[in-house]
Amino acid sequence: MDKETEKIRKRYNRTAKFFDAMGSIMDKGSMGKWRETVWKEAKGNVLEVGVGTGKNIECYTDDIEVTAIDFSENMLEKARIRSKRLGKKVNLRLMDVQALVFPDETFDTIITTCVFCSVPDPIKGLQEIRRVCKKDGKIIMLEHVRSKKPFVGKIMDILNPIVVRIVGANINRDTVENIKKAGLIVNVEQDLMVDIVKHLSCEREIR
Predict the structure, then answer these.
(1) What is the domain extent for residue 141?
(2) I need a labelling partner for 95 at 20 to 30 A (CA). Which of 9, 52, 150, 188 fits?
């Protein structure tokens, strides 16, 4: 694990205790509903990247098989506790999306929710999920990104170093462009909160 990844991992280990409290207002509102919408698209053998404390686990349906990964031990422990409380069967694994151990074309569906704001090398991580996604599979993402509106985008740029230092997440990533650079095709790009939160449906670019 490189130094930057280790630094971000430690930040998430540190914030695991109060991570749910930080996002509770959003999760009780629109974010919770958006999570449910994303998971309705999951089919077959599913990989959740960046499971965190397991906020999405209650959205898992009985007709899918889920493997969920995170690179933070403390966040993953919270997810284990939540999965047991909810009685959900999930294969929880400590793993970095930048170096997945799965064989090529393993998963039918890959889901991320607010993950690629904190992956140190987002293009590398996206290339990895492209690799393990089946050729006819889908990658469904709920991600916050840098606004294209000049004033809002500039404010996000100014605030970003503070947010990264405290939490480890970047609020000014151009995730849509990173997805394309990683060799994925964006089939659906839906703005959910102005142009800051997006629902994205992607597939592998066949080369």
Answers:
(1) 3-204
(2) 188
